[in-house]
Amino acid sequence: MQFRLGLIGHPIQHSLSPWIHNQFLEKSGLTGTYSLIEITPEDSFTRELEKLKSSGLHGFNVTVPYKQKIIPYLDQLEWKAEVTGAVNTVVNQNGKWVGYNTDGTGYVRGLKEQHPSVFEDTACKVLIIGAGGAARGVYQALIAEGLSNIDIANRTTVSAEAIAQKGSDGVQTNVLGLQEAEEVLGHYNLIIQTTAVGMKPNTEEQIISLEQLNEGSIVSDIIYQPLTTKFLQTARRKGAHVHYGHTMLLYQAQYAFQLWTSYNIPIGDLKQQLKTLLEGR
Ligand code: NAP
């Protein structure tokens, strides 16, 4: 069988997903292709999706800015995608499109590998900065792991409130503005940066000041281009443990590949290879 896979989004020319999925295809011994399918804001989204459906692709990833926009075009949503309200993976199941979200699970797996202690103490105080599609996935995945103190700070606080409303019983979530987050940063054991601020080419930008950061806290940034964002550089200087965004990228892809092919790829040295590739960019 020849797997036909791909990615929709805009802009996607510099995406690393083809590199990752081609590695997976090679490692698994399966044959197939993973194509970039750029859908620009000028294109008719409906028409492009009709074309995609008739092409009979086996599955595809969805990235910015379509993770929410894709939902009305799907035949079914898996529960994680439903509760998250964002889809990053679509599986063609006998002509029906089923939407999944592997971002949050991918994120948690990378964090757990590096900092298992976070998940051993459900009282760990977490601050998520950002309230976009990625933040929604991360929030739900942390709740699924039993964490119960998860605050959200965002420029647009109503977006953070919308995420908090999808919390669970027993989960405490305060919504903060960005300035307030700067002031109370010392309360948190784990800070997760999920906004697009600091991403290439705007590498000199940093979403908030880390002046109040506690030495020894864990600071994570899901941006992977650059791998070491200004946010992480500052955190490291302040004595925090830093966690990079490439593991989320790799593991969300691994889960997506498994959904399409039923093949659970051994990661082996791919994590290090991806890190080296990103460091060289
Ligand atoms: P999104 O849905 O578009 O959300 C963007 C977020 O960034 C929102 O919280 C937005 O705040 C905030 N933001 C953007 N520009 C800002 C600015 N100038 N000042 C303050 N806040 C700003 O995007 P997303 O899908 O969540 O992705 C966000 C980032 O995560 C991207 O850099 C993406 O590459 C990265 N990501 C990484 C992975 C991975 O595998 N490592 C996976 C997914 C995403 P407002 O709500 O106020 O607009």
From TrEMBL:
SUPFAM superfamilies: Aminoacid dehydrogenase-like, N-terminal domain, NAD(P)-binding Rossmann-fold domains. It is an enzyme of class 1 (oxidoreductase). The active site is at K67 (proton acceptor). One of its GO terms (cellular component) is cytosol. Residues 7-90 form the Shikimate dehydrogenase substrate binding N-terminal domain. Pfam families: Shikimate_DH, Shikimate_dh_N. Gene3D superfamilies: Leucine Dehydrogenase, chain A, domain 1, NAD(P)-binding Rossmann-like Domain. Shikimate binds at S15, L16, S17, T63, N88, D103, Y224, Q252. CDD domains: NAD_bind_Shikimate_DH. Pathway: Metabolic intermediate biosynthesis; chorismate biosynthesis; chorismate from D-erythrose 4-phosphate and phosphoenolpyruvate: step 4/7. InterPro entries: Aminoacid_DH-like_N_sf (IPR046346), NAD(P)-bd_dom_sf (IPR036291), Shikimate_DH (IPR011342), Shikimate_DH-bd_N (IPR013708), Shikimate_DH_fam (IPR022893), Shikm_DH/Glu-tRNA_Rdtase (IPR006151). GO terms for biological process: amino acid biosynthetic process; aromatic amino acid family biosynthetic process; chorismate biosynthetic process; shikimate metabolic process. Involved in the biosynthesis of the chorismate, which leads to the biosynthesis of aromatic amino acids. Catalyzes the reversible NADPH linked reduction of 3-dehydroshikimate (DHSA) to yield shikimate (SA). Belongs to the shikimate dehydrogenase family. This is Shikimate dehydrogenase (NADP(+)).
